[in-house]
Amino acid sequence: MTSTPKKSKKASSSKSGKNAKSAKKATLHYTTPGLDTKTAERVVALLQDRLHACNDLHLTLKHVHWNVVGPQFIAVHEMIDPQVEAVRGFADDLAERIATMGGSPKGTPGAIVAERTWDDYEIGRAGTQQHLGALDVVYRGVITSYREGIEELGDLDPITEDMFIAQTEQLELFHWFVRAHLEDTGGRLSTEGADSEVAAARAAG
């Protein structure tokens, strides 16, 4: 779950915070003590954007888990599942935070498709390096969007900011796991300069 609008799903922010700026604002009838309604509505929008991103990301990771082939299959196949479970947990935490603030979390596939600013993951059955190259772009986008949210939340709600920070720490760790497979002994990534999943898959493969 990061983005260039509707075509490079994860290139710049494949689960993009831009979506939170354009999504229709929900009216809250109550929120947590100490927050005014306008602030809470903005925080809920940021949370909902990340909820869409995490729901999309855990499905994308599972897709990769099912579709990797090649000599490193078992290592990559087994590396992905803990990431799937963690990101599913992130989605649950984000949804519960929305509800805590008086919002109504949206978790349906239709809501993701209607409100996301990225396209579906573009790689099907492919070698492990190709998928890992594409995931490098995915994670770049997801993490960039989380960091944008953290920056904004610093002035809005430190509780939600802490949640974003904790999730970003784990996402950056997972990104490192992916990049370790793409890095040469000099520390250069095979995906350097690639700004789309297809380009990164080609460079890594």
UniProtKB/TrEMBL annotation:
Signal peptide region: none
Region annotation Disordered: where it falls in the sequence: 1-29
Pfam families to which the protein is assigned, alphabetical: Ferritin (PF00210)
Any GO MF annotation of the entry: oxidoreductase activity, acting on metal ions
Gene3D superfamilies attached to this UniProt entry: 1.20.1260.10
Comp. bias regions, Basic residues: 1-12
Regions that span the bilayer: none
Domain Ferritin/DPS: 45-185
SUPFAM superfamilies assigned: Ferritin-like (SSF47240)
UniProt record similarity statement: Belongs to the Dps family.
Protein name: DNA starvation/stationary phase protection protein Dps
Source organism per UniProt: Nocardioides faecalis
